[in-house]
Amino acid sequence: MVFTRIVALGAVLVVAASSIAFAQTAPVQHPMPMDPHSAMHAGTVPTMPGQDVFGAIQEIVQILDADPKTDWSKVDLEALRQHLIDMNEVTLKADVAAKPIDGGLEIAVTGSDRTIAAIQRMVPAWASTMNGHQGWSTKATPLPTGELLTVTATDPKEVQHIRGLGFIGLLVSGAHHQMHHLMMAKGEFAHMH
After folding, report:
1. What distances in angstroms separate CA 132 from CA 23, 158, 161, 165, one per listed residue?
2. So where are the chain's domains?
3. Cα angle at 58 between 54 and 63, to 5 degrees?
4. What pLDDT shows up at residue 180?
5. Residue 184: what pLDDT?
6. Which of 25-39, 83-97, 162-176 has the lowest mean pLDDT?
7. Cα distance from N-terminal residue to C-terminal residue, the chain
8. Which of these ranges, 12-16, 53-57, 174-178, has the smallest mean pLDDT?
9. How much is the pLDDT for 9?
């Protein structure tokens, strides 16, 4: 009889211990909140907007919202959206053929359809903005389907730098895009679209 009670007590303890262990490790099922913004108060919220152009515009809107001096009558987020579409076209769809030349690099940037217009807006604007940066000489010459970008320098280290950067590295050099985007959104600067 004592043996039976000990076995029964042992069985109860095993069941109780496994129930406690399961309760501590099982995922807790919480009902979805009725207010989607209440998740923000829980401490864990997504930070990525889901798409890069959307995120860039969202960041600009947050800056404009936070600035009490924003002149909303001049804000032009559509111009910024069009420019960001151009950036996507040039970054993702342009064909790039680079060849070393004396003192630097010559890059044929070409495309088709909407990409041609994006190249013809962005590459000359970049060349104009970056001429003289780091001692570079930058020039864009129109092609039927894009632009011929020539970037040279007299300093041999800069020549290697230019060649190492290639087209996309040159395009992102100078970190001028973020301020350019803010100015464009504020209606203070515009590309032709």
Report:
1. 67, 12, 14, 16
2. 52-185
3. 155
4. 77
5. 84
6. 25-39
7. 93
8. 12-16
9. 35
Q: Which residues of 83-102 are buried (b: 16+ CB within 10 A; e: fewer)?
A: bbebbebbeeebebebeeee
Residue 93 has pLDDT above 80, yes or no: yes
Contact predicate 75/186, CB 8 Å: yes
Rounded Cα distance between 142 and 147, Å, is 5
Q: Are 173 and 164 in contact (CB under 8 A)?
A: no
pTM of this structure: 0.71
Tokens of 22: 């399961």
State the DSSP string of 147-164. Answer: EEEEEE-SSHHHHHHHHH
Q: What does the pLDDT read at residue 191? A: 52
Distance CA 131, CA 151 (A): 9
User: Residue 49: which H helix or E strand, with range?
Assistant: none
- Residue whose entry in the numeric block shows the structure tokens 């909303």: 72
| Cβ proximity of 143 and 170 under 8 Å | no
Six-digit token pair at 161?
């730098």
**What's the one-letter identity of residue 18?**
S
- Which is it for the CA torsion 59, 65, 66, 68, positive or negative? positive
Query: In the numeric block, which tokens belong to residue 65?
Result: 């919202």
Give SS3 for 126.
helix
Which residue do the tokens 């940066």 mark?
Answer: 133
